[in-house]
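Hi all, long-time lurker, first post. I run a small reading group and we've been trying to get comfortable going from sequence to structure in the token notation. Rather than ask abstract questions, I figured I'd post a concrete chain and ask someone more experienced to write out its structure so we can walk through it together at our next meeting. Sequence below, copied exactly:
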Amino acid sequence: MTKKFLSQEKMKKIIADPQAGVYLLIKPKNWPSFRLVSFIRRLTGIKKVGFAGTLDPLASGLMIIATGQATKLLDLFHILPKEYEADIIFGKTSPSFDLELATTTNESAKKFTLGELKESIAKFTGEQWQQVPIYSAVKVAGQKLYESARRGKKVVAPKKKINIYKIDVLRFEYPKAKILVTCSAGTYIRSLVSDLGQDLKTGAVLSDLRRTAIGDLSIKKAAKFDDLDKDKLLSSRVTEEKIIDYLNEYRAW
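-- Answer (accepted) --
Happy to help. Here is the structure in token form:
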């Protein structure tokens, strides 16, 4: 028998909580993920607020926010596959694999074709082990990797098993490209971009990242923070029926 994620009784209690809600919001670029929590606390007056799936400060896009007892449902969404639009600059490298830290130009980088890019992309689809970026919040021996790296300590980043289901090239004109990536939870798009750069012998950095979907929850249904109020927050709410569907589908994972 498979273990249930939540009993029906617990689910009913969560839904009955008048403060419980699950919402789809768009994180602006340059906002830390936790800033959304503070914003929603002030807007709703609810203290218990959490989110599923951190985005780096330089990234934007879809985030799932839960309030009240619904925060107990967040693990349900953590495991869902993700979709990202990623902008890449080839011919450059960075210790953080993006533009957070200074980039170095690879003067020996040679221009490649769209066909060569697609050949390289094909190598990075499917189940695989991916190296975590040194500049990430993953802990090794109780220390966050980026904290150790910034102190000049020698860091050995761990590898984690991920699955990249699909990569489509949306736009390409060397040295820039935009790709659409569908992948398992826990995938680092920065690492994927760095790996592509190494394979193509040019180096590469992630210049922009936008999460467009979590499972079948789309950014098209999400609310922006520009003029967010309580009514617009309610319009971005995930229905109880949808939550129950996810519960039934993923509780055996």
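A couple of things your group might point at:
The chain has two domains: 8-80+216-250, 82-213.
The domain at 82-213 is CATH 3.30.2350.10 (Pseudouridine synthase).
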